[in-house]
Design a protein that fits this description.
This is histidine kinase. The protein is built from five helices and seven strands; from the N terminus they run βαββαββααββα. With 158 residues, the protein is α+β, with helices and mostly antiparallel strands. The longest helix has 17 residues. The structure holds adenosine-5'-triphosphate and magnesium ion.
């Protein structure tokens, strides 16, 4: 259904804020106004949960995870950045494949099946959006996804 994406996202971040077991700071760079999008809330929750879990898993103690939402012409761009170990350039697209994990050492230490981002890609695709990763090894990772958005329709809500 139709939801204000900003309060929807804030609620998910709040839940992680309350349960996180690492000292990681959450920085929210979000629009002040409402941004209505039509989404399957359960499915989008699954997507965002996985991205935040990954970011926490690979973040150092004391790191910052930054959440941004940008309003563009016909879509919104949501990005979640961490200051963790990063992903090698050659693997940036592969992390969206089923069961792909960057290396075995990470698998052994940090668990997981390698499905989270593959599922995220499928869900975002069904919503008419896109998802991709940017990363610098040793510096951090940003996962970005888009969702269709109609800024004109936003005026009708006023
Ligand atoms: P699951 O999500 O199924 O529990 P997973 O987290 O290993 O397992 P994905 O979420 O699909 O699987 O991520 C795939 C791989 O991409 C991870 O195993 C990890 O190697 C790499 N990766 C994902 N997010 C990050 C991140 N923020 N920083 C560094 N590496 C990452
Ligand atoms: Mg995961």
């Amino acid at each position: 259904g139709w939801v204000n994406f900003i309060s929807f996202l804030n609620q998910i971040i709040d839940r992680f804020e309350m349960t996180k077991e690492k000292y990681v700071y959450f920085k929210r760079l979000l629009p002040k106004e409402s941004v209505y999008v039509e989404i399957d809330e359960d499915k989008l929750t699954q997507v965002i949960d996985n991205i935040i879990s990954n970011a926490l898993k690979y973040s150092p103690e004391g790191g910052t995870i930054t959440f941004r939402v940008k309003l563009l012409d016909d879509h919104i761009e949501v990005s979640i950045s961490d200051q963790g170990i990063g992903i090698p350039k050659d693997n940036l697209n592969k992390v969206f494949e089923r069961f792909y994990r960057v290396d075995r050492a990470r698998t052994r230490q940090l668990g997981g099946t390698g499905l989270g981002l593959a599922i995220a890609k499928e869900i975002i695709g069904v919503h008419g959006g896109d998802i991709w990763a940017k990363s610098q090894e040793g510096k951090g990772t940003t996962i970005i996804f888009t969702l269709p958005y109609d800024p004109v329709q936003e005026d009708d809500w006023l």
